[in-house]
From TrEMBL:
The keyword Lyase applies. Substrate binds at N74, H80, D87, L101, S102, R111. It catalyses: 3-dehydroquinate = 3-dehydroshikimate + H2O. Pfam families: DHquinase_II. GO terms for molecular function: 3-dehydroquinate dehydratase activity. SUPFAM superfamilies: Type II 3-dehydroquinate dehydratase. It is an enzyme of class 4 (lyase). Catalyzes a trans-dehydration via an enolate intermediate. Belongs to the type-II 3-dehydroquinase family. Homododecamer. Keywords: Amino-acid biosynthesis, Aromatic amino acid biosynthesis, Lyase. This is 3-dehydroquinate dehydratase.
């Protein structure tokens, strides 16, 4: 059974990028922890980071064919701009959790609107990389109930 983690633009720079907002963990370290957590629970976990909107959209579309059951997504700056990414998630109807490392509500006003939150199962923000682990543990529990 398959869970997909999507990381949006600039998250490839994690570790070096504005650590006061995003912490010191690299994306690779985060992904490795998530893969371990998923495999211990008997799930397959795929991760993808892209700076290109269409790559994320195409990957979401592929979920229909590859039976992805849950998505964890940090849309990064696309959170605040992308109707297209929103429509992709709405189109495939795969349940998802929206994660942000920083507390977007404590930052600039333009970060306080998300094109995703009303479609999400839930939203986690401000807990740093731990937010992904909490999202994954929820996804695992939820999928475990739907045998
Ligand atoms: C972010 C918050 C966004 O506003 C920002 O553009 C990002 C990262 C976060 O994880 O805190 O790139 O999604």
């Amino acid at each position: 059974r398959k869970i997909l983690v999507l990381h949006g633009p600039n998250l490839n720079l994690l570790g070096a990028r504005e650590p006061q907002h995003y912490g010191r963990d690299t994306l690779d370290a985060i992904n490795q922890r998530l893969k371990k957590q998923a495999s211990q629970a008997g799930f397959e976990l795929e991760t993808l980071q892209s700076n290109a909107e269409y790559v994320l959209i195409d990957r979401i579309h592929a979920c229909t064919g590859d039976k992805t059951e849950f998505i964890i997504i940090n849309p990064a700056a696309f959170t605040h701009t992308s109707v297209a990414l929103r429509d992709a998630l709405a189109g495939v109807k795969v349940p998802f959790i929206e994660v942000h490392l920083s507390n977007v509500h404590a930052r600039e006003p333009f970060r306080q609107h998300s094109y995703f939150s009303d479609l999400a199962v839930g939203v986690i923000c401000g807990l740093g990389a731990h937010g992904y682990e909490l999202a994954l543990s929820h996804a695992i529990a939820r999928l475990g109930e739907q045998v």
